[in-house]
Specification:
Layout (H helix, E strand, L loop, with lengths): L3 H4 L4 H23 L7 H12 L10 H12 L3 H11 L8 H9 L12 H15 L8 H19 L4 H12 L3 H12 L7 H10 L10 H11 L9 H15 L3 H14 L4
Length: about 270
């Protein structure tokens, strides 16, 4: 399947059709979010109002501890793991909830101290827990899986934050302006050294800190994206080609890939109320 078949030429009529359909979905989602009779996660209501009614982006964390909480919250959005954390937090966990969740899971109060949410201190906490519990770090069970991610992810973030937070954001700003293939290469490099964290979760993190050129190519996206475009063969594309194609489509629509992605995600969750 050649990507060029889809993005080499998109007719004005097709652009208008897709744009009209997305705006229709946007309007419906906003109505759903304001209707308390509709069963919806509170976090989803907030996101719909913020990202669609106001056309805003997520605010980027202003300090390293907040950045690290966002990073690991996104790393833990693997669906069964998110359900596990939700059972502890009482709702879909946010970065603010994560320290308390981890403290309960591992009986470790060190997670509750904001000053410990730096890469090297988190790595030390995870090492101490691993020394005590001796988890099989290749296991998919929740506790060892999260410790494995904390160990690898803290070291990866330490490398990326060596020059400080502003340098990290400057690099992201530069990456944000590159081609889809170059952005994908950056994402792939980011995920390579973190066991059980792939490109989709790294994109989720970068989206959640206000980078608007990223989409999370997961099963939600792969279900909704081809249906929107009317391209049944699009399902045969790789995650990389989905990512690049989504940027081309978003550019044609004069919409950020972030907003396109989030519209598809929320529509997949709540279109049943149409």
């Amino acid at each position: 399947m050649k990507l060029a078949r889809f993005d080499s030429y998109i007719s004005p009529d097709e652009v208008n059709r897709v744009h009209s359909e997305l705006m229709r979905r946007r309007d419906l989602l906003i109505n759903f979010a304001h209707d308390n009779q509709i069963s919806m996660e509170n976090l989803d209501r907030e996101c719909i109002v913020t990202f669609f009614e106001r056309w805003e982006l997520p605010k980027r964390p202003v300090c390293i501890p907040d950045l690290m909480k966002t990073f690991f919250t996104c790393c833990f959005t693997y669906a069964p793991l998110r359900k596990y954390l939700s059972s502890i937090a009482g709702s879909i966990p946010t970065p603010e909830m994560l320290p308390d969740c981890l403290s309960q899971i591992y009986s470790e109060k060190a997670f509750l101290l904001d000053q410990n949410w730096t890469p090297l201190k988190l790595h030390e906490i995870a090492e101490n827990i691993q020394a005590r519990e001796k988890f099989d770090l290749k296991s998919n069970q929740f506790q060892p899986r999260m410790i494995s991610v904390l160990l690898d992810g803290s070291m990866e973030m330490d490398r990326r934050l060596k020059l400080g937070l502003e340098s990290f954001y400057s690099e992201l700003k530069e990456i944000n302006g590159k081609s889809g293939y170059e952005i994908w290469a950056y994402v792939s490099g980011f995920s390579t050294n973190i066991y059980n964290v792939g490109t989709a979760l790294i994109c989720d993190f970068l989206k959640d800190i206000g980078c608007d050129q990223f989409v999370k190519v997961d099963h939600h996206f792969k279900n909704e994206f081809p249906a929107l475009l009317g391209y049944s063969d699009c399902n045969k594309l790789s995650s990389k080609d989905h990512f690049v194609l989504s940027q081309s489509i978003a550019n044609s629509l004069k919409m950020s890939p972030f907003h396109l992605d989030h519209l598809l995600y929320q529509w997949g969750r709540y279109k049943k109320y149409e």
